[in-house]
């Protein structure tokens, strides 16, 4: 409770500074360059609480399309609903609720939607795939079908598919019983980690190493995870090295939007890097699937051999899409078949979320690096032609969630301004 009250007080204190920041942005003004579409469409975007949904809304709006944004009632105070890029906003059920697909269809029919672009949370990507059965006769859905999304979202099945294509992935084994850990023949000199197949918003940060030399500790750790046939995990080789993440938008198996960044367990800075081996890996993988959708991948560049290994696929929009904030062709690359692949423009500044940067400036030792990051980059939400989302994410959306948790006496592990939520056990 004290922590929540402190967070609310901190956000209240920063209101004057944010008003000044928004005012300066408005004075500087200017919309990014864009190319207007010859065939304007109505585009439905889900996941309205997240910055990546706002970025897509802005890109489609600037290209002349009409944007409808949806989100669950829990996030009805999302600052993004007040964006100049959003023509209509609707609350719909949570993706896990039985009425979700029907509610999407109701919005599609009511608003005359031509294209649905899910900006899915990890808990929603499979439900968006299943919703296609209702939506496909009425609009295009830029998302994989149920079978494809389930395969990609399953870390062990994804690894199996990639390996069959001759693509590098770390050694792995699917675990459905803790006794498999006891029987596993850990290769000498290798470390492994356990990762839940289903999304684990808090436990995903736990990288406890399992080795040949620690059999008792391995078993003790695994026994506390609740591993079962219904809740499988993956035992995956830990590969030391530099992490990378990618966003890809694919139409008919052809990569049309691609971005690659250095990454980490909690990634909140995005800057394009050129890694040809990663691009080849992604292009080979997506070409093996006749899919239209958004596919994001996590990689490790091994410190031992310098090769790229894919850790997992997330069949949904990546926050790295914020790197395309000034790209005039993003909307066309999403909506038009046969578009050449686009990458972030060389002039694009790295993106970040200023509250995360300021917190790290206060709590981390390398303050010069943080200041360089702030002055080199740009806030992913703040822009002069559309300032309200910045103000209302920080002073309506997040405070409303904090008040809700305060009233419900629920805890949280951190505030994620990028995703627009409080990270909590059992969250989305």
Number of helices: 14
Shape: globular
Distance between the termini: 22 Å
* Average pLDDT level: 94
What structural class results from the helix and strand content?
alpha/beta
Instruction: Give a count of the beta strands, DSSP E runs of length 2 or more.
Output: 17
Gyration radius, in Å? 22 Å
* Spatial order of the strands forming the largest sheet: 3-2-1-4-5
Could you walk me through the main structural features you see in this protein, from its secondary elements to its overall organization?
Helix content is 36%, strand content 20%. With 428 residues, the chain is α/β, with parallel strands linked by helices. A hairpin with a 2-residue loop joins β9 (241-251) and β10. The radius of gyration is 22 Å and the shape is globular. This is ATP-grasp enzyme. It comes from Rhodococcus navarretei.
